[in-house]
What does this fold into?
Amino acid sequence: MEDRLRRWIRDDFGLDVIELTRIDHGADAAATVWQARTATEPRQYAVKWSGGGTGAALQTTAYLAANNIPGVPSPVTTTTGELWSEHEGKRLSLTPWIPGTRAAASGLTTDQWTSYGALLGRVHALEPPPALVAALPPLNPINARMPSLARSIEHRLRTEPPADSLEADLARIWEANQKTITALLDLAADLEPPNGPRVICHADPHLGNVLVDPSTIHLIDWDDAVLAPREQDLLFMLGGMGSLGPTTHEQRRAFFQGYGEVTIDRTRLTYYRCARALEDVALWSEQALQGPDREDCLEILRDALGPDGLAVRTLS
It folds into this structure.
């Protein structure tokens, strides 16, 4: 794979790769990411080969960076001026490497929460051009298949003997939280996609997608970008995300101090919370069945369904 990747980068982007290092951060099973070192300034690049999301993500980051939104990495163009190339049905894209610390590991200081709020506020305030409006989906495509995925997992756990002890643990988690999961599915069936003013949304702006360097907060991994009401992003700042979002009143206050004054529409918030809670339940359960990192997936699922998790908060 690495030899093919080096050849593609040379042919498509005109860069000779000296060294490739696989990066395992992130839960996106459809994407593979490498750190590439080249002989050409800025020398280091993040290389993503992705079959998830849409090409609109790269159009979005290029537009935001061109409008001087700090902390949004602009894609490197190919030798023919494109934002990505395609190989084996997946998009190959490059951005300059950001030598920052992942905020999911380090957390954010009060001042950094304010800076992050200001960054997301600037993204939401920027008017998208007609071409980007046409390219961005109004809903995260992942959300549409979550109810059926959850029901198929439920059926398997109820009707088939567990293949191993980890699957038996997963079945026990579902049994213990059956009322919550059923209530989420019922709520999702009743809710209509929200109307209202639409803005450019990252759709997954938790701290796992935030990098911190001494001067800048960076928001990366825009694969799920959508054109949606701002509650799509702000749900991550209003509780239920554990350490991937603000965990104290002071942190939330600091974020919104930077973001600016906003009135949250509770109906829209419930819709996006429900969609995300179902995504967490279904996708982490699926990965607990199929791997990788099955034990870690079980722990994340327990947290998502716990008393402080997003599922319970959605239904309260």
The CA atoms of residues 45 and 97 lie 4 Å apart. Residues 1-97 form a domain with the Phosphorylase Kinase; domain 1 fold (CATH 3.30.200.20). The beta strands are 17-23, 31-38, 44-50, 85-87, 90-96, 101-102, 199-201, 210-212, 217-219, 226-228.
